[in-house]
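hiii so um. not sure if this is the right channel but i have a protein structure encoded as tokens and i wanna go backwards to a sequence. like what aa goes where. can anyone help
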């Protein structure tokens, strides 16, 4: 049939012991190369883990900065709306400053602040929101220059 013949024993001679030594040396060399490959892969893995941690921290910082910028944009929108309402009201009713307008306090319409005080407050809120947004932009630019930004 199709039987595979058993392997033939290698003829042994005086050189047979040298072959065994050569095989062991080859195996030691292969093991050394495998160890080196494992060590290199471990160093690469460690470096990639370190980079991943840095990237996560950078991403978290960027998200926090973006959230603060969005808060500033929302503050700016609210301030602009308040200022727009004050300007429309002044255009419709005309502006005649009174002592309460200049100093604040209850006016005839029951507002806790005078018209001028409300407009100034809205303007100051807008300026604060703009400073917040600009501060976030400056911080982002500084991180990018330092090489820690995206």
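sure thing!! here u go:
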């Amino acid at each position: 049939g199709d039987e595979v013949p058993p392997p033939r024993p290698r003829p042994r001679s005086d050189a047979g012991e040298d072959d065994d030594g050569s095989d062991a040396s080859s195996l030691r060399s292969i093991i050394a190369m495998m160890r080196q490959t494992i060590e290199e892969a471990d160093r690469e893995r460690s470096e990639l883990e370190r980079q991943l941690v840095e990237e996560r921290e950078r991403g978290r910082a960027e998200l926090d900065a973006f959230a603060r910028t969005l808060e500033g944009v929302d503050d700016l929108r609210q301030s602009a709306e308040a200022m727009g309402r004050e300007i429309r009201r002044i255009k419709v009713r005309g502006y005649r400053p009174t002592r309460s307008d200049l100093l604040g306090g209850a006016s005839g319409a029951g507002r806790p602040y005078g018209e001028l005080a409300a407009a100034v407050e809205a303007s100051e809120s807008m300026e604060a929101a703009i400073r917040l947004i600009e501060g976030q932009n400056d911080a982002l630019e500084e991180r990018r220059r330092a090489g820690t930004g995206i």
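oh and The two ends are 71 Å apart (CA to CA).
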